[in-house]
Structure formats: C-alpha cells, structure tokens
Amino acid sequence: MLLTLAGCTTPGPTDPTPTPTSAFASEEEAFAAAEATYRAYVDAVNARREDPTAVPPPTDFLIADALEAEISAENIKTAEGLSISGRTVVTAVKGVNWEPQRGEVELTICVDSSGTTVHDVTGADVTPADRAETYALRVQFEVMSKVMVIASTQQDANATC
User: Fold this and answer.
1) What is the SS3 assignment for 7?
2) Rounded to whole angstroms, how far apart are CA atoms 102 and 127?
3) Closest CA to 33 of 86, 100, 119, 128
4) Which helix (H) or strand (E) holds 145?
5) Would you say 138 and 38 are in contact if contact means Cβ atoms under 8 Å apart?
6) Cβ neighbours, 10 Å, residue 124
7) What does the pLDDT read at residue 101?
8) N or C: which end of the chain has fewer CB within 10 A?
9) Model confidence over 44-70: pLDDT tens digits?
10) b/e string for 60-78 if b means 16 or more Cβ within 10 A?
11) Are strands 89-99 and 116-119 parallel, antiparallel or unpaired?
12) 144-157 per-position pLDDT tens digit
C-alpha cells in the first residue's frame, strides 16, 4: 500500500516565477489595437455630438488623466453654455512605443477638427478664428482586463500632420 501512494505524488512547479505576458503578439498588433480604440473613441464623441444619448459614451474608452480631462472639459463647456457640432476625423496614426510587460502603447495621432463648430447657448457660432484645424496628439494607452483604454492625451508640438 505504501508503494502505491508514493507513486501518486505530483511534482512541484519547476519554475515558480511567473513570466510576464503581453496581451499582443507583436508591436504591430498592439499599435493596431490602440488605433482601433482611438478611432472608436472618436466615433463615440462624434455620435454624442449628434445624439446626447448615443452609446457607448466616450468616457467608456478613458481612464486616469484622460478621463479627468474629458470630465473637466465637459464641465467647462456646460458652465459656459457651449456646444460643439460636426465631426472630428483621425487623419494619421504613427506607433511610437510598446511596453509589452506593462501593457502600455503610445501613438501619435493626427486629428482634423475643421468640420466642427463651437456654438454658444443661443446657437451662434463662436469658433475661435485662430483655432488650429489639424493637430497632433501623443496618446498613451493601457490594457486593463484585456481591453485597450486611453490613459492620457497631450498635444504633440513636435509632430507634424
């Protein structure tokens, strides 16, 4: 009986240290997922301009600094009685950095807002005459629960669109 029990033991793990794994197989795959996330976010923003009840809300794509900035901008627009109509368009995307162990991706994204107009509470066009219609953004993404989200967005004065 003792010999039978001894033969049924299971060996312990040979490597007790877990190996970090990426949500993506390659840099190209990570950049493509980040681009798809940003384009979906812009689609949600554009849809909300047309219909305030459109889903998903743009905030579903944001966390951390990006979420705080979005909420702050919406609060300022509301307080000042401003609204934006028209569509924003992504015109170019360039992969900058991929950190597979941390689940982070960074892109430079060119945006064209020439199709948008800012309105005051009366509906008058108050779009600043000196507004840049195209601009570059440096966008940081993170993978959270296997979903790509936007963590921060900054204008990128060094990039050209």
Assistant:
1) coil
2) 40
3) 100
4) none
5) no
6) 8
7) 87
8) N
9) 999 999 999 999 999 999 999 999 999
10) ebbeeebbeebeeeeeeee
11) unpaired
12) 888 899 999 999 98
Element (H, E) at 75: helix 64-80
DSSP string, 23-40: SSSSHHHHHHHHHHHHHH
Per-residue pLDDT, averaged over 87-91, amounts to: 97
CA distance 88 to 45: 8
Sheet with strand 89-99: strands edge to edge: 89-99, 104-112, 134-144, 147-155
Q: Which two tokens stand for residue 17?
A: 């240290």
Flag whether the pTM goes above 0.90. Answer: no
Do 59 and 71 touch, CB atoms closer than 8 A?
Answer: yes
Closest CA to 39 of 116, 139, 127: 139
Distance CA 141, CA 24 (A): 13
Q: Which residue has the tokens 């300022």?
A: 76
